[in-house]
Amino acid sequence: MGFRLESVAASASGPRPSNQDSAFAAPWGAGVADGVGGGPAGDLASAAFVHRLVAGWHQSPDAEMLTERTLMANWDIAAHGHRDPRLVGMATTFTGLFVGYRNRLLLAHIGDSRAYSLRSGTMTRMTRDDSFVQALVDGGHVRAEDAMSHPHRNLITASMSGGPDDLPLVTWVDTLQDDRWLLCSDGLTDYVDDVAVSEVLSRDDREEAASELIDLALDAGASDNVTVVVADVIASDDAPPRKTPVFVGAAARRFTLDDPFRDVAV
Question: How far apart are CA 4 and CA 11, in angstroms?
Fold first, then answer.
């Protein structure tokens, strides 16, 4: 018995004029990328990364294969910078879940987007933020409950930026039929605490849960883009179909060649 994912992806720009988040959802995988603010073309960085990562997806990866795919997508970011100096320094976070070799699940993570697992009503955070504030929490200098309001909570310490040392953490994760996963950008977790997230994530309808999570963040005054993927683990006798992913956010748009900073709706 193997697994596939049934997922819903949703994204909102919030009060910002553009959406720099990208997400995708397919039976074989799902992911969220958040273009790094303060640098050039975060929307292009997140969109380019996820599209390159999933292009031509045709096999269930092991950890090494998935790592290689993320590095190839990172090289695509570097190529944009080589082609256009205005794009040097663009970067993105990434958190993704994939049906891997022998139908186990692989989790890839870098930056401060997050993954949570919900099993039998209990939600567990499955990623550690690559961020300045997380380092302060780990060192006992900041309480975990104060991290959401820390003035430097958006300062990340790792991302996919096209650099030679960029490397996500790729790990195998245990899963059971009917587990539910949440992948999200920090536009949600910077404004909504885990208790409220868990309550909404427990709703039966994943589309309703995804929509309500975004509404919660916006109602809480989110000043960032908000992107979520709600993915249910479904038992299947067959391999996950090679279905084209659904893209949301910046990844659902195309970028003009002459002006990479301006996105045009498809």
Answer: 23
